[in-house]
Amino acid sequence: MSTASEPEQHFFRSQRLKLCYWSWGDPTNPPVILQHGGRDHGRSWDRIAEALADEYYVVTPDLRGHGDSDWEIGGEYSTPQAVVDLMALIDEIGAPVNIVAHSYGGLLTYLAAGSYPDRFRAIVSIEGRISGRPTEPEPLNPQTLRKTIEARRDLERRMPHRYATLDDAAERMHESNRRLHPEMAHHLALHGVRDAGDADGGLVWKFDNWARPGVRRDDVSPNEGQSFAEAIECPVLLIVGDQSGGLRNQQDEIKYFRDGRAVLVADAAYWVHHDQPAAVIDEARTFLAAVAARA
Question: Quick count: other Cβ atoms within 10 Å of Cβ 142?
Answer without folding.
Answer: 7
